[in-house]
Amino acid sequence: MSKICINIAWPYANGAIHLGHVAGSLLPPDIFGRYNRLKGNEVLVVGGSDQHGTPITVTAEKEGSTPAAVADRYHAINKKAIEDLDIQYSLFSKTHGDNHIEVVQDIFMDLLKKGYLYEKKTDQYYCPKCRKFLPDRYVEGICPKCGAKDVRSDQCDWCGTTFEPGDLLSARCIHCSSDPDVRPTNHFFLKLTAFTEQLVSFVDSKDHWRSNVKTFTENWLKDGLVDRAITRDMSWGVPVPLPGWEEKAIYVWFEAVMGYLSTSIEYSKMIGKPELWEEYWKGPDTKHYYFIGKDNIPFHSIIWPAILMGVGGLNLPYDIPANEYLMFRGGKLSKSRGGAIDIPSVLSKYDVDAVRYYLSVNMPDTHDADFTWEDFRIKVNNELV
Ligand SMILES: [Zn+2]
Ligand SMILES: [Zn+2]
């Protein structure tokens, strides 16, 4: 008997999960978990709602609500959707909770003491009228490359160009429409470059990885790692645990991946075996699997392993089976493409086993798969029934 830790990608709490999430990263780990339990293995399944970041604060401002209210509303909707889908988690947690915040702050202080975090000044948009720094989504303007209007200040969705503060033409604050300045601000950076050699040999030994995951990761390493800012000027997020940093939060990409560990700890406390997580995260015979969509590969194959190496003594990923996309009439399934594919709507019309069956036989595990309601009807009626 061996121990298996199944880590599931965290749905973002700014909308209801849809069929693309289920086929991409929720149903595969559930099937894998059931298989391992039947074999007699001990299985821990962790994940939850990713609740920080600017899309949630933008939604809250549009609604005249608070980020916490938006994030907790979608957490509740998605927790219920996952239960209705019969996806078996040990615990489906969330990032805006005391346990997660404590674990993230402990890791932050540990990495800081070890010299893997350092402070650096960077330029950032600042609105003199609103008197605050403006994260990427709070500044819009014209793309200097393709001329598209109303593009975000970090990247143009039309031509893919990424921007530094100051690049955007006719930049304006989305709150008050006035011209922002560019001012220096202090941030913490993760010294990702310190882990290059360790990461190269970690990836090198992974001959069992899917070729898309391995190739993507090797290319990132070949291009050379760069140190990345792990804090930003906003109040919604995990607070930086240092005096004088009250107006900054830890960046969501850096803390959400720590949710796998924090949820394992939270689950152990919840069931009255507070040491249990150590068997999974420190035991030499435990294998860690990460079920994610392909857009999440570098965060699980490079950044999270680097954080784990920095902390030390914790198990690294054994496998990262990233799925491709489920496509809907030629386009990627996403929230903006219509409500009919969100799970609460789908399960109000169809039986859960029909949905699970069709997504299992039409899973985008090696290439993008097409979803149509006509094919769903044919496969369920001709095969499952
Ligand atoms: Zn403003
Ligand atoms: Zn552009």
Q: What does this protein look like?
A:
The chain has 385 residues and is an alpha/beta fold. The protein has 2 domains: 3-95 and 252-384, HUPs (Rossmann fold, 3-Layer(aba) Sandwich); 122-185, Methionyl-trna Synthetase, domain 2 (Beta Complex), CATH 2.170.220.10. The chain is 40% helix and 20% strand. The protein contains 13 helices and 18 strands. The chain has helices spanning 19-38, 54-63, 67-84, 98-113, 196-204, 211-223, 252-255, 259-270, 276-282, 297-311, 343-349, 352-361, 373-384, and strands spanning 3-8, 42-49, 91-94, 117-127, 132-133, 139-142, 151-152, 169-173, 181-190, 228-229, 231-232, 238-239, 249-250, 287-293, 322-323, 326-328, 331-332, 369-371. The strands form 5 sheets. It has a 5-stranded parallel beta sheet with strand order 3-2-1-14-15, with helices on both faces. A hairpin with an 8-residue loop joins β6 (139-142) and β7. It is globular. It starts with a strand and ends with a helix. Residues 335-339 have low confidence and may be disordered. The structure holds zinc ion (2 copies).
